[in-house]
Amino acid sequence: MAETSLVWHRGLLNSGGPHRVLKGSLYPISIGEDECAVFGKLIEQFRPENTFIIGNAFGFSSCYIADAMRQYGGQSVITLDSEVEGRGQDCAAVARRLANVMELSLLKNKKGSSPNDTAWAAEGKNFDLVFIDGDHSDPQVTRDFEGILPFADSQAIFVWHDFWLSGINPCLKLAASHGFRWLWLPTSCEMVLGVRDARVFAELQTMFPNSVENQHPHSPLLAPTLIAKEFVRQAWDTAITRYLPAFQPIRRSRSDR
Fold this sequence. Notes:
Number of domains: 2
Mean pLDDT: 92
Helix content: 40-55%
Radius of gyration: 19 Å
CATH superfamily of the largest domain: Vaccinia Virus protein VP39
Oligomer: single chain
Number of strands: 10
Order of helices and strands: EEHEHEHEHEHEHEEHEH
Structural class: alpha/beta
Strand order of the largest sheet: 5-4-3-6-7-9-8-10
Low-confidence stretches: 253-257
């Protein structure tokens, strides 16, 4: 549907990845292939009927989740994205084309902001799986969580992406006050799984034996350092890709002499 570039080939914080961006873009960055595998295990084990995703970018994770759910009898996947990050409209167009080509009739990509448009997007459904991967700043992650919580019962599994970013931990503290227990997973960008039901939580611990309950947060300096490093790397790669070809004829002409 669109050319992409690989990011963090061997993982960011832990081994895993790679991740993707639309070629020539700095952001948004997809989840890693190792993190897709986590969703695959969750869907195979728990067979969710309805999934809600906050943050869709160019549809990499939502199409993977919808395709896996289709194999196991899932009914619907709804995404909500404001389409403002990076080349937001281009990303949304790619996501919709990808869903159409894969014939994912259970997937609906909706444009809107969380939590203002959450109730409208949810269509009154009760969700078994919730993926929060939108704006990772505080308090937006918490607002995302509070907005979708009324549409999920005690057995619903919540997934947060990018534990290393600042907005996740305040949300996890609030989730704990609502009865959630949560597990940190050592994926490339660190995922968190949370649920209120004790039986489901025990199953998650068995499924992911390398997980850690109530993992300590990272240093507040980690996120800005990694973001700055990645920004410089991607900017350099983008510049090389865009401008280096213009110098090739000059190099050839000089060698011809």
